[in-house]
Amino acid sequence: MSLIIKVTVLFFLLFNGYFTFASDPDPLRDFCILNTDSETHSSCKNSSAATVEDFVVSGIKKSTGKFDETGLSSIPVNVNVFPGLNTLGMSLVRADFDVGGVNVPHFHPRATEVAFVLEGKIYSGFVDTQNRIFAKVIEKGEVMVFPRGLVHFQMNIGDKPATILGSFNSQNPGLQRIPVAVFGSGIKEELLEKAFGLSSKEIAKLTKRFAPHE
User: Span of the secretion signal (predicted)?
Assistant: First the structure.
């Protein structure tokens, strides 16, 4: 085999491998409802036992009404709560914002997100790898996309609660919130002091705030 052919084959394998692992794999059947029966060894529920209820979820009709300290209440709709999504390469989230509520800077390592404003006015944006910010206020009926893996954020700037419906092109997009990842993961405090130019007292306060609760 000539050198050119070898290089071509290697390039094809690497290129194909990149796209193979860049997103959820294509399904090999019409559907594969996640099997929650621990008695069986199959990852898919028997298709003959499927019903329309396997493809419907009603849990995001309304907000939970319970906001966290940032003023956010979210209801994820992934394969764990909606088995019919299994292998379909998508998931959802309903995010409700109290007045002044924020969705802190975060990112999804495995998915692009499309956010549709159901109610309210949201200051929304993301930062690219050159530290350019793309942000504006989006209102009811408007949509914004957050490219996969980029840090993004949202804040309710209206005078009443707001709601966003987010859609992901992965059944398991992943979520990493920047404040918790940096100050709540156990990174050595001396490193954080040097990285952020803060005192040991200030760093200790932040690590205590974002440390995981028992």
Answer: 1-22
Q: Cβ(140)–Cβ(119) under 8 Å?
A: yes
145 HSE (CA, 13 A, CB side): 5
Q: The pTM is what?
A: 0.80
CA distance 117 to 110: 22
Q: For residue 214, is pLDDT > 60?
A: no
| Unique residue bearing structure tokens 């309903």 | 94
User: What's the CA gap between 25 and 27, in Å, rounded?
Assistant: 6
Q: What is the rounded CA–CA span in Å between residue 113 and residue 59?
A: 20
Bridge partners of 138?
Answer: 122
Q: Strand 91-97: give its sheet, edge to edge.
A: 72-77, 91-97, 162-168, 113-119, 143-146
CA angle 148, 203, 71 (to 5 degrees): 55
Confidence label for 12 from pLDDT (cuts 50, 70 and 90): very low
Indicate the angle between helix axes 189-196 and 200-210, nearest 10 degrees.
110
